[in-house]
RNA sequence: AGGGGAGUAGCUCAAUCGGAUAGAGCAACGGUUUUCUAAACCGUAGGUUGUGGGUUCGAGUCCCGCCUUCCCUGCCA
């Protein structure tokens, strides 16, 4: 008997017991049985709350529980049912349960926890980088989350297509191109030994610095003190917040708005007169007109960046079945927008720009836009050049042309929620029946103690550097600890596995939609043993990836030392202790954790599951000796360890983490 | 101003469909190594779940108000 069958049988049996106790009313179906865990394991293996039955059975929950317990007849599965208040606590046959769990895991191995084939295809877009700068911590959250969700959906039984939409076109790309052209002196990543994405990113920052210089000069010439205005705005915001008097508040608001307007006006004025920005725009125009020289530079620099990205993806274990490039898809979007204007579902203004009205967005998706009316949205500029949403229209249409999809997912940060609501509604307006199968998988921002991550300012945490630093810390820990027995040439590999697991679990272990706080100062000095280090944002002890890996490595160590293998032909009655049963219960829960993660697009169900499992493993480990003089005991416990190792392996794989055998 | 999140222990976070005494980790304090790796284990302490109402057998969870905070409301991406 396998686990699934056991659970079904258990529910049926319990159901029969309930129905026997209440023969005069309509039967309860096994699906209505909801297992939960009693507050502690002495009270039983499963708990069933009787509140939901109260209506059908026309009795108080407490009375229902007592009646069920009174009418209970023991079976091979269930040994006891005990009423405690409105709860029924179920004691199961531990020997049988242990055997069922162990045999199931040992039989299914890598497939333990796998969901049934759904015969449905899901496309998941994630990463979606801009090719003008290297990846930072915010991108890491996206990449690691996206990859984990893709793995989980695949394991749950979907056919999953992982795609990356590369934002390789637009004014931001031209900025780094222009800076390189002006100040690059023909350098290449090779010539200065830099990773391609970092190399290009340098010029993106350079452009921004030069533009800022120009702006400061311009402000000085016009005798405008931008700094003063900024502090003024800050002060006004504070005053507005603290102001109690309504009339005064209104006045302050007006003043604030005026000040903000003056800054905005200055900025707009500056940009439209800026030589540097004008050059970038001119370059964009040239790009759109297929200027050979600009296109050649664009190709060269994009290739550098993509080389760098591929290296980082390889390191992180991010994989893609297909790359879409905005430069290939924006014209398809343009075409559909123009057709929409022709059909009359979009509005063409006198200046030839094309718009979708807020009204029609609302009409198309009245559920999403129930509580507010969106503003009209520009789809194509007057000069015919496309905006951000234009290419997404094209890309999404192309995705559905390439493959018939049952779900089309976008792993993108929460700041783009309105963008995707608008996009999906537009696709509906364009009469694509699949528009409702599109879903934005939104996730929270990554923040530093000082605020937002900003690529152009100094406040960024570079992805490559972060990983490198963490690896070095692990190497230091390994070298400092004499007890760790790893071949010299393996240290780098193991350090990489551990550093990445620490990073990934840190990013995946909080709810997807929640913002994430990262304190780099605490993270970096974490191996020196000082107290500041121990509170590090990405630690290697406690609830971490390495903790789970350590549990796995310890099990490997046991098998290695005992030169043993596991067999399912053991005396399952040995595994009766509280600790052993807790572990096996947890092992049995793995398929449910996978289902929860898949159905909510939330890997954190897996991370919390694995941490719980590992804690129970160590708890067991602390109380019971695996390699014991008694051969029967040894065999049974070895099997238990083997089963746990298998589940850790399966779960960690879903999260994109390796499990080293020594650490 | 409007729309959407969030607010739980000193810090970072959990908490199945609304269910039994709100849990972990870190930080603090105390203990564990001649026994399978101390990246571990055990113990102590730490809470009016932002706030005020409501719904009911029962609310961190659902509804309404308020406070705080983040995001969005670009011819940026």
From TrEMBL:
Keywords: Aminoacyl-tRNA synthetase, ATP-binding, Coiled coil, Cytoplasm, Ligase, Nucleotide-binding, Protein biosynthesis. A motif ('HIGH' region) lies at residues 129-139. It comes from the Bacteria. It is an enzyme of class 6 (ligase). Residues 219-269 form a coiled coil. One of its GO terms (molecular function) is ATP binding. Pfam families: Arg_tRNA_synt_N, DALR_1, tRNA-synt_1d. Residues 8-92 form the Arginyl tRNA synthetase N-terminal domain. GO terms for biological process: arginyl-tRNA aminoacylation. InterPro entries: aa-tRNA-synth_I_CS (IPR001412), Arg-tRNA-ligase (IPR001278), Arg-tRNA-synth_N (IPR005148), Arg-tRNA-synth_N_sf (IPR036695), ArgRS_core (IPR035684), DALR_anticod-bd (IPR008909), Rossmann-like_a/b/a_fold (IPR014729), tRNAsynth_Ia_anticodon-bd (IPR009080). It catalyses: tRNA(Arg) + L-arginine + ATP = L-arginyl-tRNA(Arg) + AMP + diphosphate. Residues 548-663 form the DALR anticodon binding domain. Its EC number is 6.1.1.19. Its main location: cytoplasm. Monomer. Belongs to the class-I aminoacyl-tRNA synthetase family. This is Arginine--tRNA ligase. It comes from Uabimicrobium amorphum.
